[in-house]
């Protein structure tokens, strides 16, 4: 066995299994000791498997500590502290941490020059606890780039210390403060720190922070002053029409190359859409615009579309879910889809488009100028009548990879139409969501046959449909075949017998590449 470098105290299984190396996603562990990417570590009383290339040092400064939703006992906490001093990425989300743990965290951070990301999301730290943690980041050797204090019970009173910290962390690029009641006064203090020349923040998340229109002028000042600013999230704050107007003016005056603007649930109306149109047209850097849960309506969408059609617009992602859009609005949007090959992701979920809106969208998806890859049309009042149009799209469109069509009354007849399209050799769809679509066991034969015939589909969601043992059995028999390439089958709120539960467990053991989520 290779010697440890740098040296660390022996780690028990519970700790060692949380260590992740670069390229290993959170929660993913080696599935088998025979895997060539694994190395077995002995000496902890049990074997521990890491996703580790054989040539990689066992412990390196680029390792991550990622623990979520675990109440940490004193003993467990003592085990983790040495890792806080050496890991590059530390995530302790929803771990029941309070102010009492913050002194330990602060001390560990002071001696960890490798740290680039710290997430303490969902812990009740309070202003005093956050203050203590921030003191640990004051070391001259600190190189932190990403800090998440989401839902940490920070208030406006704690923003003064945070503001001072921003002045002394020139490496910090991303700050998440969502779900803290900062209020307008706290936001004002925060912006004073953001305006400091030493602050080079690029991404700021302020969702659910109890902000009003009064916060928008300080934010606009930051946008004007910071040419490197790339992403602003102010969703779910009642900044209203007046606040959005101020933000838009700040963006018009700003040299920043903004890439993402998220204003969902902000009280925007159609009256703001002309300003937003101007932003989309003038900011060639803008890639993502999120306006969901605002009362734009067809009138607002019509005002926005000229900006989307502007030659300078390179928008990739547009979220306009629950915006009061109807089939009439689809006509304006379809002109954008035909023209802008840059647009790849679109959410229209929760808009009353109806079958006529579906027809217009599908006709556009069949045109060569439309390069959409992901379409969310959940809860759009579709019926089986529109499924022949979607079936044609699934057969002929070579770009669409994800279709979220859940919570529409498609029924067995509609799903069988979709299966006809999916079963054709030309289908390239990889992800299909059919949750809560009035699907019964009668559709499972068609779905099972499709899973064998289709070689592109990797994820299928059938949650909250009236399936029983008979239907699930047909799916199981199909999925277990070597020719079925499905990787994830989602069956939330589907009820089956104990015998069927055993079959599903056996299937996952038989086919490790498949995940059944229920």
Automatic annotation (TrEMBL):
Domain of life: Eukaryota
Statement: the UniProt record of this protein carries the keyword Cytoplasm: yes
GO CC annotation, single: cytoplasm
Stored SUPFAM superfamilies: RNI-like (SSF52047)
Subcellular location(s) of the protein: Cytoplasm; Nucleus
Keyword Repeat found: yes
Keywords: Acetylation, Cytoplasm, Leucine-rich repeat, Nucleus, Phosphoprotein, Repeat
CDD domains hit by this protein: LRR_RI
Subunit note: Forms high-affinity heterodimers with RNASE1, ANG and RNASE2.
Function in brief: Ribonuclease inhibitor which inhibits RNASE1, RNASE2 and angiogenin (ANG). May play a role in redox homeostasis. Required to inhibit the cytotoxic tRNA ribonuclease activity of ANG in the cytoplasm in absence of stress. Relocates to the nucleus in response to stress, relieving inhibition of ANG in the cytoplasm, and inhibiting the angiogenic activity of ANG in the nucleus.
Protein's name according to its UniProt entry: Ribonuclease inhibitor
Organism field: Piliocolobus tephrosceles (Ugandan red Colobus)
């Amino acid at each position: 066995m290779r010697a440890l470098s740098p040296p660390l105290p022996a780690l028990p299984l519970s700790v060692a299994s949380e260590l992740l190396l670069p390229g290993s996603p959170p929660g993913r562990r080696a599935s088998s000791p025979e895997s060539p990417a694994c190395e077995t570590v002995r000496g902890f009383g049990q074997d521990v498997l890491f996703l580790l290339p054989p040539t990689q040092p066992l412990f390196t400064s680029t390792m991550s500590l990622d623990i979520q939703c675990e109440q940490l006992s004193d003993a467990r906490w003592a085990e983790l502290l040495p890792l806080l001093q050496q890991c590059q990425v530390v995530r302790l989300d929803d771990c029941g941490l309070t102010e009492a743990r913050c002194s330990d965290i602060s001390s560990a951070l002071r001696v960890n020059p490798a740290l680039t990301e710290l997430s303490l999301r969902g812990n009740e730290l309070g202003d005093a606890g956050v203050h203590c943690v921030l003191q640990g980041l004051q070391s001259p050797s600190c190189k932190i780039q990403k800090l998440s204090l989401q839902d940490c019970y920070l208030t406006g009173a704690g923003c003064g210390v945070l503001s001072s910290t921003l002045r002394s962390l020139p490496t910090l690029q991303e700050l998440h403060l969502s779900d803290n009641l900062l209020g307008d006064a706290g936001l004002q203090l925060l912006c004073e720190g953001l305006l400091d020349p030493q602050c080079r923040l690029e991404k700021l998340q302020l969702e659910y922070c109890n902000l009003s229109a009064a916060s928008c002028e300080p934010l606009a000042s930051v946008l004007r002053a910071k040419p490197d600013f790339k992403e602003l999230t102010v969703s779910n704050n009642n900044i209203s029409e007046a606040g959005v107007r101020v933000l838009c003016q700040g963006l018009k005056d700003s040299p920043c190359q903004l890439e993402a603007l998220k204003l969902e649930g902000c009280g925007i109306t159609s009256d703001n859409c002309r300003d937003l149109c101007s932003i989309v047209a003038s900011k060639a850097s803008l890639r993502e615009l999120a306006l969901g849960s605002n009362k734009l309506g067809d009138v607002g969408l019509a005002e926005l579309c000229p900006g989307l059609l502007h030659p300078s617009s390179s928008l990739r992602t547009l979220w306009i879910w629950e915006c009061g859009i109807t089939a009439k609005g689809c006509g304006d949007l379809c002109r954008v889809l035909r023209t802008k090959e840059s647009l790849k992701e679109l959410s229209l979920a929760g808009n009353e488009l109806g079958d006529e809106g579906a027809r217009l969208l599908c006709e556009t998806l069949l045109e060569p100028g439309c390069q959409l890859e992901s379409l969310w049309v959940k809860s759009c009042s579709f019926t089986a009548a529109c499924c022949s149009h979607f079936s044609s799209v699934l057969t002929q469109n070579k770009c669409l990879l994800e279709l979220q069509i859940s919570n529409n009354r498609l029924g067995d007849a509609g799903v069988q139409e979709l299966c006809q399209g999916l079963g054709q050799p030309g289908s390239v769809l990889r992800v299909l969501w059919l949750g809560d679509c009035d699907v019964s066991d009668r559709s499972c034969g068609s779905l099972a046959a499709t899973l064998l015939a289709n070689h592109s589909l990797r994820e299928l969601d059938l949650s909250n449909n009236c399936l029983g043992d008979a239907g699930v059995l047909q799916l199981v028999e199909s999925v277990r075949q070597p020719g079925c390439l499905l990787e994830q089958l989602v069956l939330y709120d589907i009820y089956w017998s104990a015998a069927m539960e055993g079959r599903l467990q056996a299937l996952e053991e038989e086919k490790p590449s498949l995940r059944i989520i229920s």
